[in-house]
Amino acid sequence: MGLLNLLFSDPFSFIVIAIPLMYAIIFHELAHGWVAYQMGDPTAKNQGRLSLNPLRHLDPMGTLMLFIVGFGWAKPVPVNFGYIRDYRKGMVLVSSAGIIANIIMAFLALLIYSMLSMPQTSKLALLLVSFARINIILAAFNLIPIPPLDGSKILMGFAPANVQTFLMRLERFGFLIVIGLLFLGALDPVIDFLQWAILSMISLLLMI
Q1: Residue 170 pLDDT > 80
Q2: Is the pTM of this model over 0.85?
Q3: Separation between Cα atoms, residue 38 and residue 83, nearest integer Å
Q4: Domain residue ranges in the chain
């Protein structure tokens, strides 16, 4: 169900999903730009993308698709690896930054949830759990090594030159491939496994 239908049928559920989703995406993109900036690339900063302002990150078409079909995207943070001395290291760290940010956000949400004594049906509990779940899904999805997802960039940082070339050539068709695989349900087992792995790691950290 798209968020537009949810807005009219269940406004509270819309808020519980839409706000956490928006900020999960923002933190994801902001992390890419921040790490790139720390490694010497000022591109994101110069374009005003190191900001928590949703308007600087949301893509009009991606937002529209999110509301209509329940799947959307944000504007990718611009990164110029020409500013980064170690290309491979930069590729891995910048690309993994968004995923790590989502995992940290999920961990913090569940940590707060576990520390506060509240009914599971309270509004704050629902927001925290929704925020954690959305961040875990976003992290798992982006770990998939298909261009243009972050997992492919991480793989490129470790892969030999011929694999890098293949992935770069594949990127022009990557978005259509990802959409097609999602439509066919072919990525569901992969996403489910990655979500399980991320949640298991967070659960272990919460027990320490």
Answers
A1: yes
A2: yes
A3: 11
A4: 3-207
